[in-house]
Design goal:
Blueprint: H1 22-30, H2 33-49, H3 52-63, H4 66-92, H5 100-120, H6 124-152, H7 158-163, H8 168-185, H9 188-222
Length: about 220
């Protein structure tokens, strides 16, 4: 049998029902309430941490001189990178399904403390300290989101479900725009309230829904075969 160049031979016996087209995949995903809730929570939380370097820079411009702004933003970048490098493995390996809600709470608290510190910091040392605390929240949220999407994704649609996380860029991209609008005409504390709103709503969804899925997983693991 002649083979056409660059054409792979057809694999016989592959189940036809696993071959989902784009439209069929989207229909399944839009009907999955767990995925919709997870996506909403991820978009909201990404609005808090996805582009925090950018909105911190916008905030600094309105409150400090150019020289002070460059000094602080450089310290923020370096602190964020070093904290991620030093703590990523130490924290990430401890995040488990059994303590999902504990880690969601720790993540939310880290973000809240970091945001409060950004709003009221008056020295380079405090900016470094609260950046490190904020980065801990970033480190925690990554394995939490991975666990959640892994738990709800059907095996034959895992790739499509993971791709839905790209929607978090919408939240990350929108925050600097909102920040610029608020800083241009309102007190900067209103922007802090906006971020806290995103954090509380997104964190609550992840806490409630993720905790429920974690309990189901633990029950299933402990049930007799």
């Amino acid at each position: 049998m002649a083979l056409t160049p660059f054409t792979l031979p057809r694999v016989n016996g592959q189940p036809e029902d696993q071959d989902h087209g784009l439209w069929a995949t989207l229909v399944v995903m839009t009907k999955d309430r767990n995925l919709l809730k997870f996506t909403l929570a991820s978009v909201l939380l990404a609005g808090v941490f996805g582009q925090f370097h950018m909105y911190v820079g916008q905030y600094l411009i309105t409150h400090y001189s150019a020289a002070q702004m460059y000094e602080i933003i450089n310290a923020v970048f370096v602190t964020n990178a070093l904290t991620s490098i030093l703590l990523q493995y130490l924290i990430g390996r401890r995040v488990t399904a059994e303590r999902f809600r504990f880690w969601v709470s720790a993540c939310i608290i880290s973000f809240m403390m970091g945001l409060a510190g950004f709003a009221f910091s008056t020295s380079l040392i405090t900016w470094i300290l609260f950046t490190a605390i904020f980065t801990v929240g970033e480190i925690i949220i990554q394995p939490l989101e991975f666990f959640y999407i892994t738990r709800i994704a059907p095996p034959h649609m895992a790739g499509a479900y993971y791709s839905s996380q790209n929607l978090t860029y919408l939240g990350a991209a929108s925050t600097p725009v909102v920040c610029g609008f608020i800083l241009a005409g309102f007190n900067a504390l209103y922007f802090l309230l906006y971020l806290l709103g995103l954090l509380l709503v997104g964190g609550t969804i992840l806490y409630v829904e993720g905790g429920r899925l974690a309990r189901e997983l633990v029950v299933k693991q402990n049930s007799p075969a």
